[in-house]
Amino acid sequence: MTISFDKCIASIQKAAGRKLSDEELDTLLEGLQKKIRAKTASFFPDPAGAAAEELAEEIALAVKIERRNAALNVRARLDAVEFVRSEFPNDPALGLESLLVGVNRSRLGSRFSVAATQQALMGDYLGGFFADMEREKLTSVLNSGALDREIAQALWKLGDESLPFGQTSDLRGLDIPAEAEAIGRIIHKWQEKARLDANRSGAAIGRLGGYIVRQSHDQRKILKAGRDAWKTAVRERIDWQRTLPDAEDVHIEAFLDKVYENLASGVHIKAQRSPTSVEGGDPASGFKGSRNIAKGLSQERVLHFKSADDWFDYNAQFGRGSLREAFVDGLERVARSTGMMQVLGPNAEANFGLGPRGSAPQDWTVAGQILKGLEGEPEAKLKLSNAQSWLTNRFQEVDGTTRIPGNVTAANINAMVRAGQSMAKLGGATLSAFGDLPLFASELSYQGGGFLDGIGVAFKGLLEGKAKGERLEILSSLGVVYDAARGEVRSRFSAHDDLPGGWSRLLQKFFKLNLLQWWTDTLTGAAALSMSHRLALNRSVAWGALDPDLTRTLSLYGLNEARWNVVRKAATRQEDGRHYVIPDGIEDLGDELFERVLAFEGRPATAAAIARLKREIPTQLRAYFIERSEFAVIRPDARTLATMRRGTRPGTVEGELLRHVGLFKGFSFSVVQKAGGREIFGRGADTFGQAIRNGNGEMTGLARMVAMTTLFGYGAMTAKELLKGRTPRDPRDPETWFAAMAQGGGAGIYGDFLFGEMRNRFGGGVLTTAAGPVLGGVQDIFDLVGRIREGDDPSAAAFRLALTNTPFANLFYVKPAFDYLIGYQISEALSPGYLRRLENRVERENGQTFIIPPSEFAQ
After folding, report:
1. How many CA atoms lie within 13 A of 23 on its CB side?
2. How far apart are CA 458 and CA 226, in angstroms?
3. What angle do CA 257, 261, 267 make, to 5 degrees?
4. Whole-number pLDDT of residue 39
5. What is the four-CA torsion angle of 407, 413, 415, 417, rounded to 10 degrees?
6. Secondary structure of the chain: what % helix, strand, coil (to 5)?
């Protein structure tokens, strides 16, 4: 028996539960016709009826998802509005900023932001993954890339969607090494964890047969190949029956054109994207709607390859190439999207409500409701309206807009230039990082520890070295992932962007050779372990009896008395006689604990609320460990990067200028914004005047931090001067201490340029120096051209310019040897009398002499 076409439409309308618009009907009719053709080709007795039934089921599911997500959006809006109104009644603009990137004000949850949630989720996934890999001693195998194809084959079979939930294929019949199978199972485990978290937050990502890792698309490679070459390479590798069932050639061509445009433009990089913007997608499979993260996540896995080898070959040609990099990149992208959804709802951008710059937010949005509540308060209303621009910058930082190149070629070239400058100028960065120690101690002191105890923790950590074995597993449980594993150490000094794979690996090698990677990883691990151990020591202490500084810090992440009682029951790990609190296992605690939390907070103890709370408290705890360890070992956070980038994109004129000027200043910005802001506003003050009057330790903490970073800055300067063969700078000269202050506390790495040899040697003014090494280097080239025009001998200046821009030549243990063995002789030969002039200038400007005068050594 067959049914009429009208009855097909009627069944679909019934599944939708409402009258569909003409536009929706047109879209659904097109999808219905495709399904009818597919059923007809498969000899269904009633192709129209079967197609209508199948599409109706899909529509019914879509309706359920839309209803669920509508509820999630409403809940997120209510939570966000309540947070801003209760914690920031006098400054709602700051409250909205807190919601996005966190602020230093001492408010309940003021740092449990979108950015902190994203970090906590990344730490959960990546930390767990790397812990599993280390436990099985498989990390080196994965990093080598030697078994990538075999691992892909294992993952292809593990993704069998026909198996019941929780079961995976036994991989029998695959002729692959045991290591490849084990790595495949670990990768699959953490991809499933990330997928389920995303689904709970609003996505609808099903298990997908033949899924390996999130397909990476290298924008540079795709553009370089061009549309036709990319389409040709993709067309022959795709399983079109799964990707576009019963599609005609013209549909395939249109599909590939659309996918190419989106991948080449970088739209896939954002956490928030339109329903059909990534890797194609059938618009008939759901309703059209405003852009939201859930739809983007749910539809970004629709390029189905014929085999694991086809996927692998595509990834090698147009992806990141390394399966490990593609996997880590995929987890981080899901974590960013899930973090946005957990705080702002599945439709985060519309829910938050900023809209285009200069436009008023709609009343139903978070921003609109906050603005509406300010009626009768014109000054506060104007302040919030004026904050729209910088709030937009912060939103674009957490949703990934600032990672999308405006021009891929320009972004690529400029990123490589900055990487080259880093490898040419940061050879002594670890010596400059000596100033980290008082900053490290200041953070632990802020949490209630002793300042000198904090110095002791730092030195102990450095002596013990990077955590290994059991300690590394504990760190992974805390969510703290070594920069060495992620290649992120460069982010300490600049508003960095993605680099081509080869350059990224070269830069990581450089930071390994200059020991900064070891320094950063070691101190970060020491800070996190110290905080975890302190919580373990206080497990028997009630909230009211805890150190007030500790409760204040925990409350920044939304932890209160009732939630502390849950943390006290959390699992602990023991290593070397010390206990550590870890977030693992909190989800397995009894419901009664969480019911008491909900009662304490005045919320109904529903099953859904309990389940959400079981996931939220571990996330809060991880956010605490990760963020506070990054306050101890300073690096730019999302707020700092938003301040530096101002919402600009790489590959644009404004974006590249800001990134060039910001090179090496990320640390300086972070010290001021994070450490300085913490000391002034982190103890209850809303203004600097209040901080002076409150007497809560603000001025004491700030003065101690400045004094100690200055002292340690002098130590860093002295170490570098000794490596240059010079006597220490005169401590009786006030300028020495200004330089030490810049070196240790404010300018950090950039202090080398403000008070170092670069300015002296090339005579650059303050503005040239402030413009950064890239733009300053352009000025140096113009100076060199000017010498040639004036008839001066440019050879010596050209040699020094080339030397200071040669990667790896500035390593702190390479440069002194090179200078005395080769460099000084060449400089003297090119410009007779240069060494004597150098010695005189150093003595005249800095009051220093050389321990071994270069002029005598070069004779």
Report:
1. 5
2. 51
3. 140
4. 60
5. -150
6. 70, 0, 30
Query: Residue 156 corresponds to which tokens in the numbers above?
Result: 């292809």
CA distance 396 to 278: 19
Asked if 408 contacts 219 with a C-beta cutoff of 8 angstroms, the reply is yes
Pairing type for strands 572-575 and 578-581 reads antiparallel
Give the amino acid at 706: V
Q: CA-CA-CA-CA torsion for 275, 278, 280, 285, nearest 10 degrees?
A: -30
The tokens describing 525, both together, are 């691990």
Cβ-based neighbour number of residue 765 at 10 Å: 11
Question: Which ranges constitute the DSSP H helices of 447-545?
Answer: 451-464, 469-478, 483-486, 501-513, 516-537
With a CB cutoff of 8 Å and minimum separation 6, the contacts of 293 are 202, 203, 271, 272, 273, 337, 340, 341, 346, 347, 348
Residues in the chain: 859
Longest dimension (CA), the chain: 104
Distance (Å, rounded) from C-alpha 201 to C-alpha 188? 20
For the chain, the first-to-last Cα distance in angstroms comes to 104
- The encoded tokens of residue 622 equal 């991880």
Q: Where is 806: in which H helix or E strand?
A: none
CA distance 387 to 445: 33
Q: How much is the pLDDT for 164? A: 53
Residue ranges per structural domain of the chain: 5-85, 101-116+405-673, 136-344, 756-859
pLDDT of 713 reads 86
Question: How far, in Å, CA of 250 to CA of 771, rounded?
Answer: 52
How many whole angstroms separate alpha carbon 421 and alpha carbon 428?
13
Q: 574 by DSSP, 3-state: which?
A: strand
Confidence (pLDDT) at 278: 31
DSSP calls for 695-737? -SSHHHHHHHHHHHHHHHHHHHHHHHHHHTTBPPPPTTSHHHH
Cβ–Cβ < 8 Å for 644, 495: yes
Q: Whole-model pTM?
A: 0.85
State the number of CA atoms in the 13 A half-sphere of 368 facing the CB: 14
Write out residues in the chain with pLDDT < 50, as ranges: 1-2, 272-291, 299-300, 489-491, 494-495, 747-764
**Locus of tokens 């020495």:** 736
Provide CB contacts within 8 A for 98, sequence distance 6+.
Answer: 83, 84, 87, 88, 105, 107, 109, 110, 111, 113
Quote the pLDDT of residue 357. 59
Say what the pLDDT of residue 283 is: 30
Q: How many CA atoms lie within 13 A of 129 on its CB side?
A: 30
Q: How far, in Å, CA of 788 to CA of 803, rounded? A: 19
Give the residue among 665, 670, 677, 669 at the shortest CA–CA distance from 634: 670
Q: Which two tokens stand for residue 674?
A: 């994070």
Spatial contact of 651 and 692, defined as CB atoms under 8 Å apart: no
Say how far apart CA 727 and CA 301 lie, in whole Å.
62
Alpha carbons 223 and 214: distance in angstroms, whole number: 20
Using CA atoms, how far apart are residues 728 and 851, in angstroms rounded to an integer?
A: 10
Place of tokens 């059923």: 39
| Helices (H), ranges, 361-490 | 366-372, 378-386, 388-399, 408-425, 429-432, 436-446, 451-464, 469-478, 483-486
CA 92 to chain centre: 26
Q: What pLDDT, on a 0 to 100 scale, did the predictor assign at position 624? A: 97
pLDDT at 242: 78
Q: How far apart are CA 568 and CA 565, in angstroms?
A: 5
d(CA 700, CA 388): 35
Dist. CA 251–CA 262, nearest whole Å: 17
State how far the Cα of 723 lies from the Cα of 428, in Å rounded to an integer: 10
Give pLDDT, residue 828.
Answer: 84
* Residue 287 confidence (pLDDT): 37
Residue 501, SS3 per DSSP: helix
